[in-house]
Amino acid sequence: MLELRGVRAGYGRIEVLHGIDLTVGEGEILTIVGANGAGKSTLLKAVSGVVRISGGSITYDGERIDPLGVENIVSRRLIQIPEGRRLFGPMSVEENLQLGGYSRRGSGSPVAERLERVFALFPRLKERLSQQAGTLSGGEQQMLAVGRALMAEPRLLLLDEPSMGLAPIVVQDIFTGLRRLNQEGLTMVLVEQDARIALSLAHRGLVMERGRIVLEDSAQALLDNPEVRAIYFGRRNAGYRRGMEKT
Ligand SMILES: Nc1ncnc2c1ncn2[C@@H]1O[C@H](COP(=O)(O)OP(=O)(O)OP(=O)(O)O)[C@@H](O)[C@H]1O
Ligand SMILES: [Mg+2]
To answer: Which residues make up the environment of ion ligand 2, defined by Cβ < 5 Å?
Structure first.
């Protein structure tokens, strides 16, 4: 469904991705784990068109998408949930969800139906429809970020650290929702610093270090890999991380 070949990208003269190859199959959850600054977010931004690539190619459903802009990529139902959620804080939950569906106005299923699907997944959003998004708890904000993306009826969903800054029990709620979405057929690329939680959801994983893929295996094999366990498990509890939560 998605294929990257030799993708290079960066900011100004600084190259961050030094030739990334990866594929994502239909119905699959691929996770990319790696430390701060490895280039995980940059990789997702390259796929969603936020960051222009300087080399290689990105193919989605057999079509080169790297020359397209963000809007054209979104209209192909390739949807990114950015790091830090990026909700419209002063707007209500309902308005945020409506805006999520904007790229599919006049097409797809009726908005009311899409809203019902979001509420079936995260009932708490329904109870808080008129609340300002900025006043939601961290967990509720992440639910809203997922819900807003679902309003665009994604075929491929890119998630950037959905567990960030959340208590383990709330992360469980979010990941249960993600698992259900995948069982209904949604393909996902999940970026996480906490390899344990990501690999427990994903089918396959990649480990990224300094802009390169250094390891690729089934999620189970990576979960059992002592090196991965030593370096990437329990990242969310690392003290230096706490000051960096971007909600
Ligand atoms: N807008 C930007 N301008 C310049 N450099 C940037 C920009 N965004 C990211 N970088 C740099 O690119 C490198 C990779 O950053 P990126 O955000 O992709 O890492 P990451 O793996 O997502 O890290 P984290 O786990 O902390 O989110 C870092 O060295 C970062 O400083
Ligand atoms: Mg990041």
So the answer is: 40-41, 83
Residue 55 pLDDT more than 80? yes
Please give the number of the atom of ligand 1 that sits closest to the Cα of 10.
12
Domain boundaries, the chain: 1-76+188-241
CB half-sphere exposure, 221, CA atoms < 13 A: 8
Give the H or E element holding residue 74: helix 70-75
pTM: predicted TM-score of the whole model, two decimal places: 0.91
Ligand 1 touching residue 210 (CB < 6 A): no
- Write the CB contacts of 66 (distance below 8 Å, at least 6 apart in sequence): 7, 46, 49, 52, 53, 56, 57, 58
Q: Which fold has domain 1-76+188-241?
A: Rossmann fold (3.40.50)
